[in-house]
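lol so apparently i was supposed to do this last week
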Amino acid sequence: MLTDDFGLYFHIPFCQRRCGYCDFFSTEGKQKLLPDYMRTLIREVKMIGAAGERPRAGSVFLGGGTPSLIDPRQIANLMQEVRRAFRLSPDAEISLEANPGTVDFDRLALYRKAGINRLSLGVQSADDCELRMLERIHTFSGAERAFHDARRTGFTNVSLDLIYGLPGQTVPMWERTLDRVLSLSPNHLSLYALTLERGTRLARAVRRGGLPAPEEDAAADMYELAEEKLAEAGYRHYEISNWAKDGDGKTESEINGSTVAGISRFPKFACNHNLRYWLNLPYLGLGAGAHGCAANRRYANVYSVEKYIERMGTGRTRRFPLSPATTRSHIRAREGEIRETMWLGLRLTEAGVDREEYRRRFGEDYYDRFKKEIDSSLTGGLVEWTGEQEALRLTPRGRLLGNRVFQLFV
Ligand code: SF4
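anyway here it is w/ iron/sulfur cluster bound
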C-alpha cells in the first residue's frame, strides 16, 4: 500500500568524479569513507526503526550521488537491517540508482541478490560528445552494456534517465538519443531539461562563451517530441518528467484510488517510491543530506559526510522521525500540507489531483478552497477536469508552463 506506510530514502553522497552540470549534494574522492558511512547508515536505520516501533515500509530508494559505488555486500547488510527495523512489505519496490560507468554483470547480479528489484541507470545521452560535455564517466556503449547486463541478471524493472536541452543540442540530435534509448525498451524513462546551476563548470563555460547557451524554445520542442515518440512506443506519461510502460496496470489496492477513463490510475512500471512524493505521502530520509517528511514534520540531515558520521556517533536519541543527524526540522501545518498536495499532485499528468481522495484526506472540496486559482487556470487552458470533474490535471500546454500553475498553490 502507498498510504499507510513509509517510503525509505537513503542518500549516498559519493561520486567517482563530479559531473560538470551537477549541483546535488555529493562528494568526490571520499570513497574511503564509504564503509564507515554504511555502518553509520545502519545505525540510523536501527535508531529510527526503534523510535517508530518498527514502522511499516512500502518502498526503499537508494539515491545519490552514486549508490552503485557501494559494495553489494554492504547493500545486503543494509537491507537485512532494514527488514529487522521496519516491517517491509513483501512486494516493496527497492530501487538503486546506478552510474553505468561503475557496474558490470557480477556487481549487478550481487545487487539483485541483495534484494534490489528496480534499477535506475543514469544514461543521460546516447551521444558520446554530449556525455563528454556533461563530464560523465561512461560512454553510450557502456550504458547499453550495463542495461543488457541488468536484464541478464534478472532486473525486470529498469529505468533510464536522460537530459535534454544541452548546449549545442538540436532536435534531430535529441531524436537520435531517444531512438537509440527506445530500442533498448526500458520499463521506465525519466527525462529532465538541463538547468544551468550557478557555480557549476558547465554554467561557467556557457557564461564565458565556451559553449552556446541552451535555448528554451528548443528544449520545449524536444519535450513535445519526446511526448509524441514515447506515446507511440507505448509509454504512459504519468508525471511531468516521467514515462512508464504499462503491464496489467497497478491494482486498486496498490494505489488506493480510482481509475481515469477506465485505465489504471498509474502505469504498472511507475516508480512507486516517487509516487509517494507526488501524492504527498510520508517518507523517511536517512543519510547525509537526506530530506524526509513524516509525522507532520519536514526535516533534513546535515550536509556533510564527516559531520553525519560524527553526529550519529553521539548516540543521542531523538523523537521519531528525527535522528542525531537532523539539523533542520519544522512542523508542517495543515495549510502547507493542503497546498503541497495540490501542486505536487498536479505534476501527475494523467491522474491529476483526485477530488475524492483529497476530500477524504482533508474533509473539504478543493474547488471550494481554490476556486479563483482553478478558474483562472481553466480559462487560461492550463488545467482541465477529467471525467465528471473527478480530478484536476494539467493540459498539454499546462505541462510546458507547469511552474505558472504551481505558483498559484505554493
Ligand atoms: S554522478 Fe550524479 S550525483 Fe554524481 S556528480 Fe554526476 S550527476 Fe551529480
